[in-house]
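Interim report to the steering committee. The following record documents the input for Fumarylacetoacetate hydrolase family protein (233 residues).
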Amino acid sequence: MSTEARDNFVIAPQKTPSLPIVGSSQRFPINRIFCIGRNYAAHAVEMGHDPSKEPPFFFFKHAGAVSPSGEFPYPSETTDVHYEAELVVALHKGGANIAPEAALDHIWGYGVGIDMTRRDLQAVAKEQGRPWEVAKSFDNSAPCSALIPVTAIGHPQRGRISLAVNGEIKQDGNLDQMIWKTPDIIAILSQYFELFPGDMIMTGTPSGVGPVQRGDTMIAEIEGLGALTVAVK
């Protein structure tokens, strides 16, 4: 943004959140982060739900929640923070009412992410029928790897997705276990929201979610995309 453009604001605008790109000095600017809930059947069951009876549902994380630093500061107002390893989808093209067969054309690249969740605050929100933002959209709640462009990786449809804590495997699933596949997620989201370049989607997590403590090290890995190592501080 030019100096002249910045001068038109009454306060200085915040820097655009972004992620690094594998093999490039350029960065991917983040607009919004959409998340789909309970998109792996085994995870839905472990959270006490019947996936055969649920339509897809979504929630948000704010763009600044992305943390590419490799560190996760343990958040305030909670004593039960959980990890959820996820495939991250980054869009370079937007639109509304996108057809599933056209959805993959909107994807710029992919990454490995962890949806960090204040599980105790989420439980209270569910019980009281309140929104999930304080449990899901807090600062640093979306650690994410550098992104890999589609031109280099293609479109992952299957492959192991796992998360280890201090070397012990906690989550171990496969991308082909997603109930709603990536094209379906994009198509359904675009019925509710006009999507824009820079939007990202976290596509759900397999079973095995659980808590972390200060001093723990998480390693989330997706076959073909690499690993994301995050230290809990």
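The chain has one domain: 26-232. The committee is asked to note this result when reviewing the revised timeline.
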